[in-house]
Amino acid sequence: MDKFIIRGGKPLRGTIATGGSKNAALPILIASLLTDEPCVVRRVPRLRDIVTTLRLLEFLGKRVVQDNASVRIYSRKGLKTQAPYDLVKQMRASVLVVGPLLARFGGVRVPLPGGCAIGLRPIDLHLKGFEQMGAKVSLERGDAVMSARRLHAARIPLRFASVGATENLLMAASLLEGGTTIENAAREPEIADLAVFLRSMGAQIEGEGTRRICVRGRRVLRGAEHEVIADRIEAGTFLIACAATRGSVFLKGARPGHLRNVLKKLQEAGCKVQASSAGIGLSAAGRPDPVDITTQPYPGFPTDLQAPWMALMSLAKGQSMIRERIFEKRFLHAGELARLGARLSVDGDMVCTDGVGKFSGALVMASDIRAGAALLVAGLAAGGKTEISRVYHIDRGYEAVEKKLRRLGADIIRVKS
Ligand code: EPZ
After folding, report:
1. How crowded is residue 166: how many other Cβ atoms within 10 Å of its Cβ?
2. CATH code assigned to 23-227
3. Which is catalytic among the residues 116, 214, 271, 352?
Protein backbone atom coordinates (compact mmCIF):
# COMPACT_ATOMS: atom_id res chain seq x y z
CA MET A 1 0.00 0.00 0.00
CA ASP A 2 1.40 3.38 -1.07
CA LYS A 3 2.15 6.15 1.37
CA PHE A 4 2.81 9.88 1.15
CA ILE A 5 5.86 11.52 2.72
CA ILE A 6 5.41 15.24 3.29
CA ARG A 7 7.91 17.80 4.50
CA GLY A 8 5.46 20.45 5.60
CA GLY A 9 5.52 24.11 6.56
CA LYS A 10 5.67 25.42 2.98
CA PRO A 11 2.85 27.75 1.82
CA LEU A 12 0.91 26.49 -1.19
CA ARG A 13 1.30 29.00 -4.03
CA GLY A 14 0.20 29.00 -7.65
CA THR A 15 -2.58 27.94 -9.98
CA ILE A 16 -4.07 24.52 -10.72
CA ALA A 17 -7.10 23.39 -12.69
CA THR A 18 -9.98 21.79 -10.79
CA GLY A 19 -10.86 18.29 -11.97
CA GLY A 20 -14.25 16.83 -12.84
CA SER A 21 -16.56 15.92 -9.95
CA LYS A 22 -16.32 12.30 -8.73
CA ASN A 23 -19.79 12.49 -7.19
CA ALA A 24 -21.33 13.83 -10.40
CA ALA A 25 -19.45 11.43 -12.72
CA LEU A 26 -20.47 8.26 -10.81
CA PRO A 27 -24.27 8.57 -11.25
CA ILE A 28 -23.91 9.96 -14.79
CA LEU A 29 -21.76 7.01 -15.91
CA ILE A 30 -24.28 4.63 -14.31
CA ALA A 31 -27.15 6.44 -16.07
CA SER A 32 -25.78 5.02 -19.35
CA LEU A 33 -27.55 1.79 -18.28
CA LEU A 34 -30.84 3.55 -19.13
CA THR A 35 -30.19 3.30 -22.89
CA ASP A 36 -28.70 0.96 -25.50
CA GLU A 37 -27.34 3.91 -27.45
CA PRO A 38 -23.74 5.15 -27.04
CA CYS A 39 -23.01 7.73 -24.33
CA VAL A 40 -19.94 9.98 -23.98
CA VAL A 41 -18.98 11.51 -20.62
CA ARG A 42 -16.17 14.05 -20.52
CA ARG A 43 -14.02 15.50 -17.71
CA VAL A 44 -14.21 12.19 -15.83
CA PRO A 45 -11.57 12.19 -13.06
CA ARG A 46 -9.09 9.32 -13.03
CA LEU A 47 -9.90 7.82 -9.63
CA ARG A 48 -10.27 4.37 -8.08
CA ASP A 49 -14.01 4.81 -7.69
CA ILE A 50 -14.32 5.64 -11.40
CA VAL A 51 -12.34 2.50 -12.28
CA THR A 52 -14.68 0.47 -10.06
CA THR A 53 -17.72 2.02 -11.75
CA LEU A 54 -16.42 1.27 -15.26
CA ARG A 55 -15.68 -2.33 -14.22
CA LEU A 56 -19.22 -2.57 -12.89
CA LEU A 57 -20.67 -1.31 -16.19
CA GLU A 58 -18.57 -3.85 -18.12
CA PHE A 59 -19.68 -6.64 -15.77
CA LEU A 60 -23.30 -5.71 -16.42
CA GLY A 61 -22.78 -5.84 -20.21
CA LYS A 62 -21.54 -2.46 -21.42
CA ARG A 63 -18.39 -1.87 -23.49
CA VAL A 64 -16.31 0.98 -22.06
CA VAL A 65 -13.60 2.93 -23.90
CA GLN A 66 -11.65 5.41 -21.77
CA ASP A 67 -9.47 8.03 -23.45
CA ASN A 68 -7.92 10.25 -20.78
CA ALA A 69 -10.80 12.16 -19.22
CA SER A 70 -13.38 11.03 -21.80
CA VAL A 71 -15.36 7.80 -21.40
CA ARG A 72 -17.41 6.24 -24.21
CA ILE A 73 -19.97 3.64 -23.21
CA TYR A 74 -21.53 1.27 -25.75
CA SER A 75 -23.97 -1.60 -25.51
CA ARG A 76 -22.34 -4.98 -26.09
CA LYS A 77 -25.07 -7.48 -25.28
CA GLY A 78 -28.08 -7.80 -23.00
CA LEU A 79 -27.52 -6.31 -19.56
CA LYS A 80 -27.21 -8.44 -16.45
CA THR A 81 -29.50 -7.45 -13.59
CA GLN A 82 -27.37 -8.62 -10.71
CA ALA A 83 -24.60 -6.40 -9.34
CA PRO A 84 -21.50 -8.34 -8.17
CA TYR A 85 -20.77 -8.56 -4.46
CA ASP A 86 -17.10 -7.56 -4.63
CA LEU A 87 -17.76 -4.35 -6.54
CA VAL A 88 -20.72 -3.25 -4.42
CA LYS A 89 -18.68 -3.87 -1.27
CA GLN A 90 -15.85 -1.74 -2.65
CA MET A 91 -18.04 1.19 -3.50
CA ARG A 92 -21.42 2.09 -2.02
CA ALA A 93 -22.37 4.12 -5.10
CA SER A 94 -22.74 0.78 -6.97
CA VAL A 95 -26.25 0.68 -5.48
CA LEU A 96 -27.16 3.37 -8.05
CA VAL A 97 -27.47 0.63 -10.70
CA VAL A 98 -30.78 -0.40 -9.11
CA GLY A 99 -32.84 2.49 -10.49
CA PRO A 100 -31.88 2.00 -14.17
CA LEU A 101 -32.00 -1.84 -14.11
CA LEU A 102 -35.27 -2.06 -12.18
CA ALA A 103 -36.98 0.48 -14.46
CA ARG A 104 -35.69 -1.20 -17.65
CA PHE A 105 -35.99 -4.88 -16.81
CA GLY A 106 -38.46 -5.09 -13.93
CA GLY A 107 -36.04 -6.92 -11.68
CA VAL A 108 -32.66 -6.44 -10.00
CA ARG A 109 -30.59 -8.09 -7.27
CA VAL A 110 -27.93 -6.10 -5.42
CA PRO A 111 -25.86 -6.89 -2.31
CA LEU A 112 -26.69 -4.50 0.51
CA PRO A 113 -23.77 -2.04 0.74
CA GLY A 114 -22.11 -2.68 4.08
CA GLY A 115 -21.26 -0.16 6.73
CA CYS A 116 -17.98 1.60 6.24
CA ALA A 117 -15.65 3.89 8.12
CA ILE A 118 -18.24 6.66 8.24
CA GLY A 119 -21.27 4.82 9.52
CA LEU A 120 -23.96 2.27 8.72
CA ARG A 121 -25.22 3.92 5.53
CA PRO A 122 -28.41 1.90 4.91
CA ILE A 123 -30.42 2.18 1.69
CA ASP A 124 -33.90 2.11 3.23
CA LEU A 125 -34.88 5.38 1.53
CA HIS A 126 -33.92 3.97 -1.88
CA LEU A 127 -35.94 0.77 -1.26
CA LYS A 128 -38.99 2.62 0.11
CA GLY A 129 -39.01 4.86 -2.96
CA PHE A 130 -38.93 1.88 -5.32
CA GLU A 131 -41.78 0.27 -3.36
CA GLN A 132 -43.77 3.46 -3.88
CA MET A 133 -43.11 3.02 -7.62
CA GLY A 134 -44.64 -0.47 -7.42
CA ALA A 135 -41.61 -2.68 -6.78
CA LYS A 136 -41.67 -5.68 -4.45
CA VAL A 137 -38.58 -5.64 -2.27
CA SER A 138 -37.26 -8.63 -0.33
CA LEU A 139 -33.98 -9.25 1.45
CA GLU A 140 -32.35 -12.59 0.64
CA ARG A 141 -29.06 -13.60 2.25
CA GLY A 142 -27.70 -10.06 2.36
CA ASP A 143 -29.01 -9.09 -1.09
CA ALA A 144 -31.86 -6.72 -1.84
CA VAL A 145 -34.06 -8.42 -4.47
CA MET A 146 -36.49 -6.12 -6.27
CA SER A 147 -39.10 -6.99 -8.88
CA ALA A 148 -41.88 -5.07 -10.56
CA ARG A 149 -44.07 -6.10 -13.46
CA ARG A 150 -43.95 -2.45 -14.39
CA LEU A 151 -42.77 0.41 -12.23
CA HIS A 152 -45.16 3.33 -12.25
CA ALA A 153 -44.80 7.07 -11.69
CA ALA A 154 -45.38 8.12 -8.07
CA ARG A 155 -45.15 10.93 -5.53
CA ILE A 156 -42.17 10.07 -3.33
CA PRO A 157 -41.63 12.06 -0.11
CA LEU A 158 -38.09 11.42 1.22
CA ARG A 159 -37.74 11.29 5.03
CA PHE A 160 -34.22 12.70 4.60
CA ALA A 161 -32.72 14.56 1.63
CA SER A 162 -30.53 11.58 0.68
CA VAL A 163 -28.20 12.25 -2.27
CA GLY A 164 -28.06 8.62 -3.40
CA ALA A 165 -31.77 7.96 -2.98
CA THR A 166 -32.60 11.11 -4.99
CA GLU A 167 -30.23 10.02 -7.78
CA ASN A 168 -31.48 6.41 -7.84
CA LEU A 169 -35.14 7.40 -7.95
CA LEU A 170 -34.49 10.17 -10.49
CA MET A 171 -32.89 7.67 -12.88
CA ALA A 172 -35.74 5.16 -12.50
CA ALA A 173 -38.37 7.90 -12.97
CA SER A 174 -36.68 9.00 -16.22
CA LEU A 175 -37.90 5.76 -17.83
CA LEU A 176 -41.47 5.99 -16.50
CA GLU A 177 -44.24 7.68 -18.45
CA GLY A 178 -46.46 9.83 -16.25
CA GLY A 179 -45.31 12.34 -13.63
CA THR A 180 -43.07 11.34 -10.73
CA THR A 181 -42.38 13.86 -7.94
CA ILE A 182 -39.52 13.49 -5.47
CA GLU A 183 -40.20 15.63 -2.39
CA ASN A 184 -37.53 16.70 0.09
CA ALA A 185 -35.07 15.85 -2.69
CA ALA A 186 -31.36 16.44 -2.13
CA ARG A 187 -30.24 19.72 -3.77
CA GLU A 188 -26.53 19.00 -4.35
CA PRO A 189 -25.01 20.35 -7.63
CA GLU A 190 -24.15 16.75 -8.57
CA ILE A 191 -27.88 15.98 -8.75
CA ALA A 192 -28.47 18.98 -11.00
CA ASP A 193 -25.66 17.70 -13.23
CA LEU A 194 -27.28 14.24 -13.42
CA ALA A 195 -30.60 15.92 -14.31
CA VAL A 196 -28.92 17.78 -17.20
CA PHE A 197 -27.60 14.46 -18.53
CA LEU A 198 -30.98 12.70 -18.15
CA ARG A 199 -32.69 15.61 -19.89
CA SER A 200 -30.30 15.27 -22.83
CA MET A 201 -31.32 11.60 -22.96
CA GLY A 202 -34.94 12.69 -23.41
CA ALA A 203 -36.44 12.82 -19.92
CA GLN A 204 -38.42 15.91 -18.91
CA ILE A 205 -37.15 17.10 -15.52
CA GLU A 206 -37.95 20.24 -13.55
CA GLY A 207 -36.88 21.47 -10.12
CA GLU A 208 -33.44 19.89 -9.81
CA GLY A 209 -31.52 21.83 -7.16
CA THR A 210 -34.75 22.49 -5.25
CA ARG A 211 -36.53 20.33 -2.68
CA ARG A 212 -39.09 19.19 -5.27
CA ILE A 213 -38.08 17.46 -8.50
CA CYS A 214 -40.76 16.62 -11.10
CA VAL A 215 -39.97 14.01 -13.78
CA ARG A 216 -41.88 12.96 -16.86
CA GLY A 217 -39.95 10.03 -18.27
CA ARG A 218 -40.03 8.11 -21.56
CA ARG A 219 -40.03 4.36 -22.14
CA VAL A 220 -36.96 4.66 -24.37
CA LEU A 221 -34.13 7.10 -23.76
CA ARG A 222 -31.44 8.06 -26.28
CA GLY A 223 -27.68 8.22 -25.85
CA ALA A 224 -26.14 11.56 -24.85
CA GLU A 225 -22.85 13.44 -24.42
CA HIS A 226 -21.99 15.42 -21.31
CA GLU A 227 -19.15 17.22 -19.58
CA VAL A 228 -19.14 16.73 -15.81
CA ILE A 229 -19.10 19.78 -13.49
CA ALA A 230 -16.00 20.78 -11.50
CA ASP A 231 -15.39 18.90 -8.27
CA ARG A 232 -16.45 21.26 -5.47
CA ILE A 233 -15.06 18.98 -2.74
CA GLU A 234 -11.63 18.74 -4.37
CA ALA A 235 -11.68 22.54 -4.76
CA GLY A 236 -12.77 23.07 -1.15
CA THR A 237 -10.04 20.75 0.07
CA PHE A 238 -7.33 22.68 -1.80
CA LEU A 239 -8.67 26.02 -0.52
CA ILE A 240 -8.57 24.72 3.05
CA ALA A 241 -5.03 23.40 2.51
CA CYS A 242 -4.00 26.84 1.23
CA ALA A 243 -5.51 28.45 4.33
CA ALA A 244 -3.70 25.99 6.62
CA THR A 245 -0.32 26.68 4.95
CA ARG A 246 -0.88 30.47 4.75
CA GLY A 247 -0.47 30.43 0.99
CA SER A 248 -2.09 31.93 -2.08
CA VAL A 249 -3.69 29.78 -4.80
CA PHE A 250 -6.05 30.08 -7.74
CA LEU A 251 -8.27 27.12 -8.70
CA LYS A 252 -9.12 27.40 -12.37
CA GLY A 253 -12.62 26.18 -13.21
CA ALA A 254 -13.83 25.88 -9.60
CA ARG A 255 -17.45 27.07 -9.27
CA PRO A 256 -17.94 29.69 -6.46
CA GLY A 257 -21.72 29.10 -6.62
CA HIS A 258 -21.17 25.48 -5.49
CA LEU A 259 -19.11 26.49 -2.45
CA ARG A 260 -20.91 29.59 -1.11
CA ASN A 261 -21.15 28.35 2.49
CA VAL A 262 -17.53 27.15 2.56
CA LEU A 263 -16.19 30.42 1.08
CA LYS A 264 -18.16 32.36 3.70
CA LYS A 265 -16.61 30.28 6.50
CA LEU A 266 -13.11 30.73 5.02
CA GLN A 267 -13.62 34.50 4.95
CA GLU A 268 -14.84 34.43 8.56
CA ALA A 269 -11.62 32.56 9.37
CA GLY A 270 -9.67 35.53 7.97
CA CYS A 271 -8.90 34.35 4.43
CA LYS A 272 -9.09 36.63 1.40
CA VAL A 273 -11.29 35.02 -1.25
CA GLN A 274 -11.62 36.11 -4.92
CA ALA A 275 -14.54 34.43 -6.71
CA SER A 276 -15.23 34.76 -10.46
CA SER A 277 -16.53 32.78 -13.44
CA ALA A 278 -12.89 31.76 -14.09
CA GLY A 279 -12.45 30.12 -10.69
CA ILE A 280 -11.68 30.77 -7.04
CA GLY A 281 -8.63 32.45 -5.49
CA LEU A 282 -7.67 32.36 -1.81
CA SER A 283 -4.85 33.81 0.22
CA ALA A 284 -4.14 33.56 3.95
CA ALA A 285 -1.52 35.41 5.96
CA GLY A 286 -1.62 33.95 9.46
CA ARG A 287 -3.34 31.52 11.80
CA PRO A 288 -7.07 31.22 11.04
CA ASP A 289 -9.70 32.69 13.35
CA PRO A 290 -11.88 30.01 15.01
CA VAL A 291 -15.15 29.41 13.11
CA ASP A 292 -17.85 26.91 14.16
CA ILE A 293 -19.51 24.70 11.55
CA THR A 294 -22.43 22.26 11.43
CA THR A 295 -22.63 19.95 8.42
CA GLN A 296 -25.93 20.04 6.52
CA PRO A 297 -27.35 18.85 3.21
CA TYR A 298 -26.56 21.28 0.36
CA PRO A 299 -26.44 24.28 0.39
CA GLY A 300 -25.21 23.91 3.99
CA PHE A 301 -21.60 23.16 4.93
CA PRO A 302 -20.76 19.86 3.14
CA THR A 303 -20.01 16.84 5.32
CA ASP A 304 -17.23 15.91 2.86
CA LEU A 305 -15.27 18.99 3.95
CA GLN A 306 -15.80 18.49 7.69
CA ALA A 307 -12.55 16.56 8.14
CA PRO A 308 -10.33 19.02 6.23
CA TRP A 309 -12.03 21.85 8.13
CA MET A 310 -11.20 20.15 11.44
CA ALA A 311 -7.55 20.11 10.42
CA LEU A 312 -7.68 23.85 9.71
CA MET A 313 -9.53 24.72 12.91
CA SER A 314 -6.98 22.73 14.91
CA LEU A 315 -4.55 25.53 13.99
CA ALA A 316 -6.96 28.39 14.80
CA LYS A 317 -6.44 31.21 17.31
CA GLY A 318 -8.92 29.79 19.83
CA GLN A 319 -11.67 27.22 20.27
CA SER A 320 -14.18 26.13 17.63
CA MET A 321 -17.01 23.59 17.48
CA ILE A 322 -17.59 21.13 14.66
CA ARG A 323 -20.93 19.34 14.49
CA GLU A 324 -21.50 16.39 12.10
CA ARG A 325 -25.20 15.98 11.32
CA ILE A 326 -25.05 13.78 8.22
CA PHE A 327 -23.08 10.68 9.23
CA GLU A 328 -23.04 9.06 12.64
CA LYS A 329 -19.33 8.18 12.77
CA ARG A 330 -17.35 10.69 10.77
CA PHE A 331 -14.66 11.66 13.31
CA LEU A 332 -12.10 8.87 12.81
CA HIS A 333 -9.60 11.50 11.63
CA ALA A 334 -9.64 13.23 15.05
CA GLY A 335 -7.30 10.67 16.60
CA GLU A 336 -4.86 10.94 13.71
CA LEU A 337 -4.89 14.76 13.82
CA ALA A 338 -4.08 14.54 17.55
CA ARG A 339 -0.91 12.65 16.62
CA LEU A 340 0.18 15.77 14.69
CA GLY A 341 -0.50 17.94 17.73
CA ALA A 342 -4.18 18.86 17.42
CA ARG A 343 -6.06 19.36 20.70
CA LEU A 344 -9.55 17.88 20.13
CA SER A 345 -12.33 16.57 22.31
CA VAL A 346 -15.04 14.38 20.75
CA ASP A 347 -18.50 14.29 22.32
CA GLY A 348 -21.23 12.52 20.31
CA ASP A 349 -21.80 14.45 17.08
CA MET A 350 -19.61 17.34 18.25
CA VAL A 351 -15.87 17.97 18.26
CA CYS A 352 -14.33 20.91 20.09
CA THR A 353 -10.95 22.01 18.74
CA ASP A 354 -8.55 24.04 20.87
CA GLY A 355 -6.33 25.64 18.24
CA VAL A 356 -2.55 25.23 18.50
CA GLY A 357 0.17 27.35 16.93
CA LYS A 358 1.68 24.57 14.90
CA PHE A 359 1.67 20.88 14.13
CA SER A 360 4.71 18.58 14.21
CA GLY A 361 5.12 15.85 11.64
CA ALA A 362 4.10 12.28 12.61
CA LEU A 363 3.18 8.83 11.26
CA VAL A 364 -0.58 8.79 10.52
CA MET A 365 -3.07 6.55 8.68
CA ALA A 366 -5.98 7.44 6.39
CA SER A 367 -9.33 5.74 7.20
CA ASP A 368 -11.58 7.11 4.41
CA ILE A 369 -11.34 9.56 1.51
CA ARG A 370 -11.96 12.78 3.42
CA ALA A 371 -10.18 11.73 6.60
CA GLY A 372 -7.16 11.16 4.39
CA ALA A 373 -7.63 14.64 2.92
CA ALA A 374 -7.61 16.08 6.45
CA LEU A 375 -4.26 14.40 7.11
CA LEU A 376 -2.89 15.88 3.87
CA VAL A 377 -3.98 19.38 5.01
CA ALA A 378 -2.42 18.88 8.43
CA GLY A 379 0.79 17.31 7.10
CA LEU A 380 1.28 20.19 4.65
CA ALA A 381 0.99 22.65 7.55
CA ALA A 382 3.12 20.64 10.01
CA GLY A 383 6.78 21.30 10.58
CA GLY A 384 9.02 18.33 9.83
CA LYS A 385 8.14 15.02 8.17
CA THR A 386 4.66 13.47 8.05
CA GLU A 387 4.05 9.99 6.67
CA ILE A 388 0.48 9.11 5.63
CA SER A 389 -0.23 5.41 5.05
CA ARG A 390 -3.20 3.74 3.28
CA VAL A 391 -3.34 6.54 0.74
CA TYR A 392 -5.54 4.31 -1.45
CA HIS A 393 -8.37 5.94 0.47
CA ILE A 394 -7.26 9.35 -0.79
CA ASP A 395 -6.84 8.02 -4.34
CA ARG A 396 -10.55 7.14 -4.33
CA GLY A 397 -11.47 10.82 -4.32
CA TYR A 398 -8.49 12.96 -5.38
CA GLU A 399 -6.86 12.56 -8.79
CA ALA A 400 -3.01 12.72 -8.77
CA VAL A 401 -3.21 14.74 -5.58
CA GLU A 402 0.53 14.69 -4.88
CA LYS A 403 1.29 15.99 -8.40
CA LYS A 404 -1.17 18.86 -7.99
CA LEU A 405 0.24 19.73 -4.57
CA ARG A 406 3.82 19.63 -5.88
CA ARG A 407 2.74 22.05 -8.61
CA LEU A 408 1.72 24.38 -5.75
CA GLY A 409 5.12 24.10 -4.09
CA ALA A 410 4.47 21.29 -1.61
CA ASP A 411 7.24 18.85 -0.73
CA ILE A 412 5.30 15.59 -1.06
CA ILE A 413 6.26 12.26 -2.61
CA ARG A 414 4.40 8.98 -3.07
CA VAL A 415 6.33 5.91 -1.90
CA LYS A 416 5.09 2.73 -3.50
CA SER A 417 5.20 -0.21 -1.16
C1 EPZ B 1 -23.25 10.92 -1.17
O2 EPZ B 1 -23.31 9.71 -0.42
C3 EPZ B 1 -21.77 11.14 -1.48
N4 EPZ B 1 -21.27 10.03 -2.29
C5 EPZ B 1 -20.97 11.22 -0.18
O6 EPZ B 1 -19.62 11.50 -0.52
C7 EPZ B 1 -21.54 12.39 0.64
O8 EPZ B 1 -20.86 12.44 1.88
C9 EPZ B 1 -23.04 12.18 0.89
O10 EPZ B 1 -23.72 12.04 -0.38
C11 EPZ B 1 -23.67 13.36 1.63
O12 EPZ B 1 -23.46 14.54 0.91
C13 EPZ B 1 -21.51 10.03 -3.64
O14 EPZ B 1 -22.14 10.93 -4.17
C15 EPZ B 1 -20.94 8.90 -4.41
P16 EPZ B 1 -26.77 10.14 1.51
P17 EPZ B 1 -24.74 9.01 -0.13
O18 EPZ B 1 -27.64 9.11 0.91
O19 EPZ B 1 -25.59 9.11 -1.32
C20 EPZ B 1 -28.36 8.18 5.54
C21 EPZ B 1 -17.31 11.15 -0.54
O22 EPZ B 1 -16.44 11.26 0.34
N23 EPZ B 1 -29.19 7.38 4.66
O24 EPZ B 1 -27.11 11.58 1.34
O25 EPZ B 1 -24.48 7.67 0.43
C26 EPZ B 1 -26.89 7.77 5.45
O27 EPZ B 1 -26.63 6.68 6.32
C28 EPZ B 1 -18.64 10.50 -0.20
O29 EPZ B 1 -17.19 11.54 -1.73
C30 EPZ B 1 -30.16 6.54 5.21
O31 EPZ B 1 -30.32 6.47 6.42
O32 EPZ B 1 -25.27 9.97 1.02
C33 EPZ B 1 -26.15 9.01 5.86
O34 EPZ B 1 -26.10 9.06 7.28
C35 EPZ B 1 -18.70 10.04 1.25
N36 EPZ B 1 -30.92 5.79 4.38
C37 EPZ B 1 -27.04 10.14 5.33
O38 EPZ B 1 -28.34 9.55 5.11
C39 EPZ B 1 -30.78 5.82 3.02
O40 EPZ B 1 -31.52 5.11 2.30
C41 EPZ B 1 -26.53 10.75 4.04
O42 EPZ B 1 -26.59 9.76 3.06
C43 EPZ B 1 -29.78 6.67 2.47
C44 EPZ B 1 -29.00 7.43 3.31
Report:
1. 28
2. 3.65.10.10
3. 116
Query: Worst-scoring range by mean pLDDT, 47-56, 109-118, 394-403?
Result: 109-118
Q: Mean pLDDT across the stretch 32-49?
A: 97
Q: Is 271 annotated in the active site? A: no
Q: What is the pTM of this model?
A: 0.97
Q: Whose C-alpha lies nearest to ligand 1, atom 21?
A: 304
CATH architecture entry for 3-15+231-415: Alpha-beta prism (3.65)
Mean of per-residue pLDDT scores for the chain:
96
Q: What does the pLDDT read at residue 217?
A: 97
Tens of pLDDT, residue by residue over 143-159, are 999 999 889 999 999 99
Calpha distance 205→174 (Å, rounded): 8
Residues with beta carbon inside 6 Å of ligand 1? Answer: 23, 26, 92-93, 119-126, 160, 162-165, 186, 303-304, 326-327, 369-370, 397
Q: Compute, in angstroms, the gap from residue 76 CA to the centroid of ligand 1.
A: 31
Closest CA to 45 of 350, 397, 301, 389: 397
List alpha helices for 31-143, DSSP H: 48-60, 85-90, 98-105, 124-132
